[in-house]
Structures are given as C-alpha cells and as structure tokens.
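User: I'm putting together notes for a lab meeting next week and I want to include a structural view of one of the chains we've been expressing. I don't have a solved structure, so I'd like a prediction I can at least talk through. The sequence is below, exactly as it appears in our construct file.
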Amino acid sequence: AVDLGRLNAPKPAPQETQRNPFRFEGARPAPSGGPTSLSPVPTLPAGPVMPSPIEPPLPVGPPPIPLRCIGTVEAPQRGTKLAVLSDGRDVC
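Assistant: Thanks for the context. Below is the predicted structure for the 92-residue chain, given as structure tokens.
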C-alpha cells in the first residue's frame, strides 16, 4: 500500500553532519588543528627517460555482417539446401 499523504508531506531540511563518505567506517576524524605532518613523497632518481616504443596499430577487420540466419530450405529433388537470411527489415 502506498501512503500518498506521506509522499506529499514536506521533506525535512538537511542537517549538519560529521559523516565523510571517503573515510572507512570506524576511522577517527582528523583533528581540527590543521593538517598533520606527512612524510615527503619519495622522488625517482633523475636520469635519462627512455621513450616508450611506439606499437603499430592493430589491423581493423571488416565490419560485422548484418544478417542473421532465420532458417533453411531443402529441395531434395535438386539436391540443394539454401540458407534463409534476414537483415531484420520488413520487406512486405
């Protein structure tokens, strides 16, 4: 059962919260005294930078065939079997 009266009721205003969606559950919030001391990010030793080898592009194949097999027709007197294909368009 749907309570239509509740659907039309005014929505509560957003409230201030300490929730952080980017923090794992149970983690303590950072102190409000500013950023903490972080260890410096290690840098790589300076040296010659080797360019990455350029690979040739992969060959592009033919486009997919837009036909689907919808059945077969056999003509035993002629000894032939034909496939019936359709592109999904109505021709009638």
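A couple of points you could mention at the meeting. The mean pLDDT is 79. The radius of gyration is 34 Å.

User: Perfect, that's what I needed.
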